[in-house]
Fold each of these.
Amino acid sequence: MKVFINGETKEIAEQFNLLELLREFSLPSERIAIELNKEVVRKKDWESIAIKDADRIEIVHFVGGG
Amino acid sequence: MFTLAGKTFNSRLIIGTGKYRSFEEMQAAHKASGAEMVTVAVNRVPLDRATESFLDYLSPEMQILPNTAGCYDAEHACRTARLAREALETDWIKLEVIGDKITLLPDNEQTLEAARILVKEGFIVLPYFTDDLIMAKKLLDAGCAAVMPLAAPIGSGMGVQNPSNLRIMREQLPEATIIVDAGVGVPSDAAIAMELGADAILMNTAIAEAKDSAQMATAMRFAVQAGRLGYLSGRMPKRLYASASSPLEGAIK
């Protein structure tokens, strides 16, 4: 199925939950946040929420800024 | 001492984390500045490469103030604030809604709309906005913890362009916390903003782009202190003509 992660179209083979998605892309799970279809998903819910086809996911971290 | 949303800071200087040539240089500047709060930006994680954990380079004692930089409407700013809160477990947010890519001037209307939403959601909202008294009043009425008028456009280093606006804001809003955000270029700019009665100053580029950023951070630290003391001391009146400091009577003839 196809999902949109940080504006990029990605083909996801399995029905990952959000935590598995982070692992798939070798992303850290600390001090990041995930938004699923414009709603923030609490960290405790990452494992229980399965990704669906055409989901729009934003994964953010922190960078230098003013 | 400076209290903001119930938290006390010894330093009235708040600084950014952007544009430094290296993390080491940023750390040295942060230390030299004496600042106790730093801003950070929320950004998409790159999917194609590993990234260093930028936050590891910040002193654990620093209060982290995430911003909503890069947002051009209230909705994006609110979403960014919520993501920052989830990731950092902080309710503090520097609200920044930009209206134009060239000037990076704030969209005050969208800023106010976002402020109202975020205050309702329990955020401690610190909005960046145009140095306008009426807008400041509306933001405070919306429940913002402070107002953060610009001195000049972000990263311009132009210094306080409208000193009378800041003075009016200080005089008309004596109880409000006013943090001058953006536009400071040199220590004298910081001192002027503080002399006009600002409670604190937020700056990034003036330190990060200095040839010696740690030394500039020290200079800014002193300038903020000097300006604050100057404001508290009460300036002498301006006069069009001279007023002799030495007695005119009794000079030899």
Note: Residues 95 and 127 of chain B are 4 Å apart (CA to CA).
Amino acid sequence: MAVVVENLTVRYGEITAVQDVSFVAPTAGVTVILGPNGAGKTSTIEVCEGFRSPSSGSVAVLGLDPGREHHALTHRMGVMLQGGGVYPSARVKDVVSHFCALYGKKINATDLIEQVGLTSRAKSTWRRLSGGEQQRLSLALALAAQPEILFLDEPTSGVDIDGRDTIRTIIHEAAQQGTTVVLASHDMAEAQRVATHVVLFQQGKVIANAPLAEITQSRKRLRFTSTDTLDTLALSQSIGSLVNHQGDGVYEVTAESSARLVGRITQWLGEQQLPLRGIDLGEETLEDAYRRLTGGAQ
Amino acid sequence: MKRVFVQLRAELLLLARNGEQLLLTLVIPVVLLAFFGAVDVLPTGDIDSIDFLVPGIIAVAIMSTSMVSLGIATGFERSYQVLKRLGATPLTRGELVVAKILTVFVVELVQIAVLLPIGFAQGWRPAGSTVALAIVAVLLGTATFAGLGLILAGSLRAEINLAAQNGLYLVLLLLGGMIISQDSLPGPMASISAALPSSALAEFLRSSLNGDGQLLAPALVLTVWAIVAPLIAARRFRWS
């Protein structure tokens, strides 16, 4: 395992940001630490990077203690901060060249700039880059380490569609080449696209820690949209499965989806002269899983 | 060592891109020297005013550049998370401190190259034959004030750092024997002044450039400051 977190607690004075958290990040996988803002993701990542000391518990990254063996770890890890990290008047080419030279791994700065799609902006200063371009430059600086492990904090935040594609491709390629990627995000849909392993955080605690497939493919779901005033009890009795109102006329049936079940629902709606505005069959998404595991909280 | 030069290059490049800051760093000592060299209003004790002023203004330039400019810029780097980002690279705290001290030393060489001709034009002639000692004084002064600037920048929030740098600068400027002679200060203040790094630097420069006054005492005081301040800076420096 590239990252082993055991009983980690991080406190800021009276506030407990992370409480007795344990999880692992498999080597050469993409582990997404997922949860809403303030769930403790960044605090956890910062302990892993060696920027923050744990109040209690232990963390091992590539077998090293990030606090005590931080310098040894810096040669092997790439870090992308949640924001900033570059002097506003620094030019893209200069700052990438600077970081390549600091790591001393003979990576060509021009190639790296091209890899993150910033060739046309190579002479621009940080302050003149868009939010998405700044994120891509930050990713380039992390890649300058030619890392064994990449820590990315909200890498696609504020990035446009093309930029997200670029970042996703880079993450997949890095993992394919054996790099472990640990990524913090609150974007469930984005996380589902890149994750191989998911650690779900809620209010400083881990509520799930498993491969993506295990979390999402264990359940199928059927969701449909009709009027707000549907009699869920009557429908549940008619189809023989529990129906829950999710709000805004969206209903979820807690049963394995099937053509027969869909037929029963449409038939019942027809009999009641109620509209069927939409129907969604399929595997549970990360967002569904998160809502299920947190009892609907987001 | 290679990383020190990589960082030094980046710092100099960044400095060159912030031309307005560089200009200010050069202009203030030049204006002070030109004005007080022409208008004889400062209490300079027994020394001829221009002999007092040239080493004193060089000391002011060193303090401005290595403490205030460096300290404030580093404080901003903290608020921009530049330091935190550097902290994730193999660059160590010690290497960063050395690179920053070397950067200000380069700027000071430019400042001195501008100030000396102005001093000459106003009639100053170095009487001392110990220019090598003056260079030592500049190096020790740079290490001292860069260390002090980085101690503040490395441990205070950006806004508090800005105020603290300017406050300390004012105290050292007034009490530090740079533009006001120690002899003109009241008894207790003069005693405090002798232990300050600004007095030590100004006196060390005057002795080595003018060939008069004490050399050993200020050299010793400055050496202690030059060792202690950067050491504390490197130890207390926080990346974030």
Note: Chain A has a mean pLDDT of 89.
